[in-house]
Specification:
Blueprint: E1 9-17, H1 22-36, E2 40-47, E3 55-63, E4 77-80, H2 83-89, E5 98-102, E6 114-118, H3 120-126, H4 133-145, H5 150-160, H6 166-196
Parallel strand pairs: 1-4, 4-5, 5-6
Antiparallel strand pairs: 1-3, 2-3
Helix pairs in contact: 1-4, 1-5, 3-4, 4-5, 4-6, 5-6
Amino acid sequence: MTGQETSSKKEIVVTGFGGQGIVLAGRILGKAAALGDHRESTLVQSYGPESRGGACSAQVIISDGVIHYPYVRKPDILSAMSQAGYEKYADLVEEDGIILIDQDLVKPKPGKASVFAIPSTRFAEELGRKMMANIIMIGFIVATTGAVSHQAALQTVEKSVPKGTEKKNLEAFSKGYDFGLALFKGREKKAAGQVGA
C-alpha cells in the first residue's frame, strides 16, 4: 500500500490518551469521508477509566459500500499517539497496512506493516498550541494513506475546530500533510536510486 491509494474499504484506528483530541480526529476523518467524499463511514469511540490521560481510541471505517459491522477487526491504518495505544493495536494491523506514529511518544517494534513517523506533538508546540497535534496527525494520515481526500479533510477540519482557531488549525493540518508528502517523495527517490544501482 502506498500513499494516495484509495480502496473500497479502509479500517482505521486512531489511538492515544485522553486530552489529545483522539475522538475529534476520528470524527473529522469520518465526516470528511461521508460529507466531503460522499462515502459511507462509521465511528466507534472508547475511553479508558479516566478520560484525560487514560487510554482513548477512535475506530473509523470508510467504505464505498454499506458497512455492516462498525467495529474495526483488522486495521489497515493505525495512527498511534501513545505507546500504550500502539502496543494495544499494532499486532492487529494488516501485513500491507500502515502504522503512523508520533515519533516522540511512540517507539515502534519491528513488524510487517510499514511505519511512518511524524513529530506531531513537537510540531504543535512549535505552532504554539500543543492541542493541535491531532490536527497535524490528520494531515499526515491524509497525505500518507489517501483515506479521505485532501479537500474533504481541509473543509471538515475548518468546520470542526473551535471558532477563532480555524486559521491555526488549517496551518497545523497543512504542516502534517506537507510532512507526509515530503516523506513519500523522499522514499520514492530513494527507491528509484536503489533500482538504478
